[in-house]
Input
Amino acid sequence: MKKQNISGFATKIAKMCDRKRQFPINGQLELTYRCNLNCIHCYCKEMENKDQIGKVKAFTHQLFGRDKKRFKYGPFIFPRLNGDKAPCDHRLSPEELLKIRHSDSDMWQEYKKDLCEALPKLKREKDYLYHCNSWMTNFFITPYGRLKFCALTDNFSTDLKKEKFREGFYNIFPRLLYEKFKTKSECRNCRLRPVCYQCPGRAYLETGDEEAPVQYYCKLAKAILKDKHSFN
Output
C-alpha cells in the first residue's frame, strides 16, 4: 500500500471549517473497498470467533490499559457496500448475543443497567425518518473523494473534488433533519423504535429502501424487550 503523509490533514480540516460553528471531532478515511475478510481482528466472522471476544478485550487492555470505556462490543455486521449480503451470514442470534454479554462482567453490568431503565422515548416526532445525530460531529471520506455523514449510505453526500468540505458538513448534512417517512412503513409507529438498531442507512444497505424493516434488527429489538421484562 502506498504511504501518504497525512500529518497536516487535521490542520487542513480545521482551516476549512468555521470554529464558531459545530466542528467535526471524529473522521474516517476509507482506504479500500477490496476487503478479503481475512484480517486477524475481523468482526465479519463473528459466528466463528465469538469465543475469542474475551481475547480481543484483553488485547485492547494490553494496548490502552484497563479502561472499561476503551472496549465496546457491538453486534453489528452489515452487507458490503456493493450490496453483497454474504457477511450477514455470520451474524449472531439474540440468544448467542445474550450469552456473550453474560460471559463478561463489564458487558453484562452495562447491558443490565440499560435493561433496568424504562423504555426510552423517541427524541423526535415519529414522522421524521432520521433520529441519528452522529452526523453533527462525524464524517467519512471514501477512496473516491465523497464526503459522507454515514459510512453506510451515499445520501446527503458530496464530491470533495467539486465541493468544499465546509459545504458538505455544514449545509448538506443537516438536510437529513427534514426527511420524513413517505410510506406506511412498520417502523414508523413501532414502539420498539427507540431501542432498535434499525436506521435508514442500515435499511437501505440491506433492502434498498430506507424505510423498510430489517428482520434481524426486529428480532434484536424484541429480544431486548423480553430481557427488559425479565428485570422489571
